[in-house]
Amino acid sequence: MTFGLRSLALALLLATLAACSSGPDRPEPTPLQSFAPQIQGAQVWQAQLGDVEFALAVAADATSVTLASSSGDVIALAADTGRELWRGNVGEALSAGVGSDGRYASVVTRGNELVVFDAGKLLWRARLDTRVVTAPLVAGERVFVLGVDRSVRAFDVLDGRKLWALARSGDPLTLLQAGVLLPWQNTLVVGQAARLVGLDPLSGAQRWEAAIASPRGTNEVERLADLVGPAARIGDTVCARGFQSAVGCVDAARGVLSWTKNVGGANGVAADEQLVFGADASDRITAWKREGGDVAWTSDDLRFRSLSSPLVLGRTLVFGDYQGQLHFLDRENGKPLLRLPTDGEAIVGAPVKAGPNIVAVTRDGGVFAFRAE
Asked: pTM of the entire structure?
């Protein structure tokens, strides 16, 4: 199958999935139940970004949060107050972003250009020979890019010089969805089909490979089991979801699979020292024990509410939904602790921790920062 036909098949697949998620045959979302809040929380600032029509990844650290709109605006805000620190514009629509190390920020355009800013100043642009929907990773004075064909490229963050490239062959179909791309100590961890792969970030040489999912089915579409982001990294463990097939964890120090469980779902996972969290295709939330993968608890309270990928922080597990609600759940049992509204539009991507706050972005580009107990 040629790349053009693969792209067409992917577009049709995703359109079908989108229709299934919102069509008349999809069950009605579970009504939200009233409850007495168990923790305190409130909105502390709000900003406007512009429409977000791609798989936005929000880059955040202790002092700043960096975001991008579909139209090409790239913005850094102060994590504590929402004050604008800098703003840049790519000049065309985006397909992926944002990756940032706190200084350099990187996005990819729909025209397949990798663009890097230095504190808001356009530093360089480089043409890519593959489509990209996964936010670039900026780390160690390099920019790493994962293509939709799950090829990997590394560039020098200062001048845009290509350092190495690694192609992946043998996978006839891949998802047009953000994949797994993250650092672990001195290893670059990427998702390639149903496998987590550890690479040398200096050369692209493979160090290890571990399969999280086992593709099944009678055709290429049914066998799709690409790893989807975000993945979770805790100590030496990296946990990820295989699209509609499995959730599993890998020991990145040894490059071996720790456990895998067959479960559907299309969004990424979160984890802490004890548990791994995710919602399946029906938005049933499950917590698995990080050691061994046994189920610790499940919750049906938010089924069919088109949940985002989660954030786990202290005692709370946070999901966004299709109505812009942020649900703060008890990470020990899934019981509701707090519910806070945004602007009524769907939450895009996973909520993130930014300094003392939790930041969520909606489809209309509303940026909301909350502080919870």
From this structure: 0.91
